[in-house]
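README: folding subset

This subset contains proteins for which both the sequence and a predicted structure token string are available. Records are stored as plain text. Below is the entry for Exodeoxyribonuclease 7 small subunit (102 residues), shown exactly as it appears on disk.
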Amino acid sequence: MSENGMPDKDPAAPADREAPPEDFAATLERLEALVGQLEAGELTLEASLAAFEQGVRLTRDAQRRLDAAELQVQALVEQPDGRFEATPFTAPNPPSESGNDR
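--- output ---
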């Protein structure tokens, strides 16, 4: 219990409605902290599940941010006259996972 008589909030138990961090680096820091807590094995089962759920939400947020950033990235292509021109970024096609590359 805290000094005001309210139950203390478990710092290891993430809030369900907690807003994602404002930037990508903060999202990664929070993910790393959650992984550290889970790897330490000191959380209760309930706190571990809550941390895992928050980690999934943060991972999805990070992936969304990466996808949005990829859309904004532009490649600079050198023109024959030496100047650079911005062109839309196109990601290379990932290799096929089937192993049947012909």
